[in-house]
Amino acid sequence: MSFGSPYTTLPDFEYHKPTSLEEVLGLLKQYGDEAKLMGGGVGLIAFMKERLMSPGHVIDVKEVKELKLLENVQGKGLTIGAAVTLSDLLEREVLKKDYTVLHEAIAKVADPMIRRRATLVGNLCEAIPWVDSPPALIALDATVAIAGPDGRRSVPVGGFIRGPVDIDLGPSEIVTGVDIPQTKSSHGAFEKFTGGSEFSLASVAVMISNGGRNRRARVVYGSVNSSPIRSAEVEEAIKDGISPGSIRKAAEVASEKVECVDDVLATAAYRRHLLKVITTKVLRRMMSQ
Amino acid sequence: MREISVTVNGRARKRMIKDNELLLDFLRERLEVRSVKAACWRGECGLCTVMLDGHLVKSCLVLAVEADGREVKTVEGITNDGELAPIQKAFVTHGAAQCGFCTPAWVLATHELLKANPNPSDADLVEATSGLVCRCGTYNQIREAVAEVSAASKPRREPRESLARA
Questions:
Q1: Is B155 strand, coil or helix?
Q2: Best interface-test mutation with B: which of A113, A114, A117 has the largest number of B CBs within 10 A?
Q3: Are residues B104 and B133 in the same domain?
Q4: Mutate to test the interface with A, among B28, B58, B59 (most CBs of A within 10 A)
Q5: Which of A201, A287, B8, B152 fits a disulfide with A266 by CB distance 3.0 to 4.6 angstroms?
Q6: What is the CATH number of the domain that holds A20?
Q7: What ipTM does the predicted assembly reach?
Q8: What is the residue range of A132's domain?
Q9: Which of A219, A209, A213, A212 is CA-nearest to residue A185?
Q10: Is residue A72 part of a domain?
Q11: How many CA atoms lie within 13 A of B15 on its CB side?
Q12: For residue B161, is it within any domain?
């Protein structure tokens, strides 16, 4: 047997498969810090193989009915439960039509076999700086729904991600899902550059609402810093519309104002160049739509 | 240890397993289904791909215990009474295997693609198999094999009688 060598095996743990949220909260209360929640398991299993995580208890939430919820309510928006996979989402017509920015962000994540297992909430909770769904969710003004021993609370996605692998979630709490307010007469788009890496070196999510005088833009950059960055300067540059001139201006201020870092994937200087490229690409595409 | 029961290629299999065991190890080591290959162990090469309840997944990223009470299909499950499936015959015809290590995963994935979409475009094929690698580089031959099965599934138009007589 191949059991025994690191990177191919998992540390010892006890597996739990609750079917209700009460049961999950009970297990979290009992095991707290020693437990890890598992959605699709893609990230958790990889982390455990690398021994970056060695939980004594793994709580699989795939069969919790409440967490499988995926519904679009007219006038309210889209609710995505924690056990909903990226494939489940991509199969919904409404995502492509009304939440284009999120559709574009997750349609190119990994490959179809991984998307069949990976969940949106798992992707968010890993809080890896180079993943694509957080900037799109922030552009959509999404909130994270959390349940814990003291009841329920909800926080904006931007505040939920505190830094690399650091989220606003207590040891006995669980993210039950993500809520996205209904998009009204707005359109969005997502662009990224990976350079062949499994992660993005820079990404941008744009939402523009065309509500007459209430026209507003939300522009969020991902993968260039420890957590996603919303840029008021770029939003200002395109507030009067997308034209060749405003695109040039937006690309310039993105490159100058959005703070980039050096890390294992790229240098800050390269990222500043990429910001110009992806800002131009995403806005040109939106202009021609 | 706990006992799980998994239907593998139509046959119920029961084994004792540890909670931290991967589906990949369960299939290869406990059941000796050796067509499921262990290579990268991190979900990148796709050679451990199997069907779990009707969907392709990478078995190095699935716990064995998660498959309890569910159905797994491997490449052995696509033959019909020992007769090769059309895509398997096409792989042979077009020499779509070099060293053969990745072949079971590619055969299974292209077989399932053709079942869901009998006439896939090149883009459909690339997207559906984007999670698989072949380090011998048989991609062109695989594309030819898929194209042959796809063409064979298109309804042939019989010449109309009037034209045939003319």
A1: coil
A2: A113
A3: yes
A4: B58
A5: A201
A6: 3.30.43.10
A7: 0.91
A8: 66-181
A9: A209
A10: yes
A11: 21
A12: no
